[in-house]
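Hi W., the 2-acetamido-2-deoxy-beta-D-glucopyranose complex you wanted:
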Amino acid sequence: MQVAVLLLLVAALCSATLALDNGEMRVPPMGWLAWERFRCDLDCEHDPKNCIRQNLFIDMADRLAEDGWRELGYVYVNIDDCWSSMKRDEKGRLQADPKRFPRGIKELARYMHARGLKLGLYGDMGTHTCGGYPGTTLDNIDLDAQTFADWEVDMFKFDGCYSNATEQEQGYPLMSKALNATGRPIGYSCSWPAYQGGLPPKVNYTELGQICNLWRNYGDIQDSWDSVLNIINWFFENQDVLAPAAGPGKWNDPDMLIVGDFGLSMDQSRAQMALWAIMAAPLFMSNDLRTISSGARTILQNKMAIIINQDPMGVQGRRLVKEKIGIDVFWRPLSKNASALVFFSRRTDMPYRYQTSLSKLNYTAGSYEIYDVFTGKSMALKDSAPFVVSVNPTGVVMWHVSAPAKWNPRHFYKGGRRQGPAFDGGEENAVPPVFL
Ligand SMILES: *[C@@H]1O[C@H](CO)[C@@H](O)[C@H](O)[C@H]1NC(C)=O
Ligand SMILES: *[C@@H]1O[C@H](CO)[C@@H](O)[C@H](O)[C@H]1NC(C)=O
Ligand SMILES: *[C@@H]1O[C@H](CO)[C@@H](O)[C@H](O)[C@H]1NC(C)=O
Ligand SMILES: *[C@@H]1O[C@H](CO)[C@@H](O)[C@H](O)[C@H]1NC(C)=O
Ligand SMILES: *[C@@H]1O[C@H](CO)[C@@H](O)[C@H](O)[C@H]1NC(C)=O
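Structure:
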């Protein structure tokens, strides 16, 4: 484990200096993105009210600002495909569809900024967006970047429908340069690898880290557990390629959080939140914040899961163990020698009592303070002590594990509550104060 930590640290430090130098997204970005939950959702004929698309983004902004999301870090409000007019304006610039965005994009950006939020916009490297709206061909890149900057956009997602590999190879780096040349810091999300199978040799993660802040590696998420599990499997099967690519300012993006929609149980929702935190993934919810259940809200607003996701060291976690009995153990090193563990069950029968120990997971000798992320319970645990976690089918148990402290036999437990003072490790051993 120590060797692994060192290698990861070295990788993170080496690559940190090579990240896209726009100062953006030193920790994974958080916010809301329209696509999975709302798609184009344009039915102007039968539902004229719903046709005024800007209202959706204003509603979500109000919810983020008023319901405690913004303070937790969820600050982006991101528009996806189907926002623009079918035609560029007389000067060749993209323009918002006036029926759907009567206020225009710039006023929407200002609405966000007035509330301490940020606006994200969508475009496509190619002749058309995936939804058939005007795309950004190579000759339009500078103009479009300037248009987004003029509108005070804070983040730009560049999709890749209707272009080929050669054009993408030119277009994605050119857009990075063009955004930089506007002088406005704009977080840059590249869908490029998702169009090239997500793996080397077709995908060069060194280059991506130099030109993009985040990138979609794999297919779109859908509102189902099958889809979430498929994404989890792909990302962790390819962790040796993907994890070293991530770091402050450059993130793998397994796609949106669908917690709060229709497809996931509460256990599956906790599993998505936990594993997105382990992966240092961007946290873009795609749900309806006006009607979200309190259960889903509690999961998405879990402070310790967010602290783990937002760890400043920015090392992407990995799977340590994949047991034949259907339990996977995931681990992410955190700053101050802390770490996170996730015990995940692929089983479909009943809660499984999984036994292991920290030393089996290669933790160094010492005693640790464990904080259970979803129950809020704490306990002390010696590296050599066997323990049992009960993991629900398609669910997780997630722990924040403090830095190791020397084992002190004075600290024992009675009735689940700690007796006596904290560990010898003092502050280093402490669970971070919840929250920030
Ligand atoms: C543009 O790139 C330069 C050099 O990498 C960097 O110093 C600067 O902050 C960037 N500006 C923006 C707006 O991204
Ligand atoms: C990619 O598209 C461009 C422009 O349409 C075309 O000139 C080029 O031949 C295409 N390249 C490949 C490899 O298909
Ligand atoms: C990947 O990109 C980096 C940075 O642009 C470059 O130095 C390297 O040669 C590329 N690797 C391959 C295999 O093309
Ligand atoms: C982390 O652990 C290493 C090795 O045990 C130690 O040298 C280092 O001082 C620790 N760092 C912090 C911030 O606790
Ligand atoms: C612990 O380390 C050993 C030796 O490096 C390795 O073989 C084993 O896979 C590791 N176990 C875990 C759970 O990482």
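DSSP finds 15 helices and 18 strands in the chain.

W.
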